């Protein structure tokens, strides 16, 4: 396969707290290397939630013409 290049732009991906609907979830512990579990807590109400493999907030890259 030949090398291919494309232009991308960074987007920030946040997760809004399911409990209060206002705070952003942020990672508050290390990722479990076996399960991929990452504990997060809400900045406002301290609600705890576990996500797998991909922490919030994070930066993803998408093609310049793609919709996020
Ligand atoms: Zn909250």
- Distance, first to last CA: 28 Å
Determine the strand fraction and express it as a percent band. Answer: 35-45%
Based on CA atoms alone, the radius of gyration comes out at 15 Å
Number of helices: 0
- Which ions, cofactors or small ligands are bound in this entry? zinc ion
- The ordered string of helix (H) and strand (E) elements is EEEEE
Largest sheet: 3 strands, antiparallel
Average pLDDT number: 96
Give the proportion of residues in helices: under 10%
Which class of secondary structure composition applies to the elements? mainly beta
Low-confidence stretches: none
What spatial order of strands do you see in the largest sheet?
Answer: 2-3-4
Task: Write down how many β-strands occur, each being a DSSP E stretch of 2 or more residues.
Answer: 5
Outline type: flat
Description:
This protein is mainly beta. It has a domain at 15-61. 0% of the residues lie in helices and 38% in strands. It has no helices and five strands. It has strands at 8-13, 25-27, 37-42, 48-52, 58-63. The strands form two sheets. Strands 2-3-4 form a three-stranded antiparallel sheet, with no helix packed on it. A two-stranded antiparallel ribbon has the order 1-5. Strand 3 and strand 4 (48-52) form a beta hairpin. The radius of gyration is 15 Å and the shape is flat. The model has no long low-confidence stretch (mean pLDDT 96). It binds zinc ion. Residues 17, 19-20, 23, 42, 44-45, 47 line the site of zinc ion.
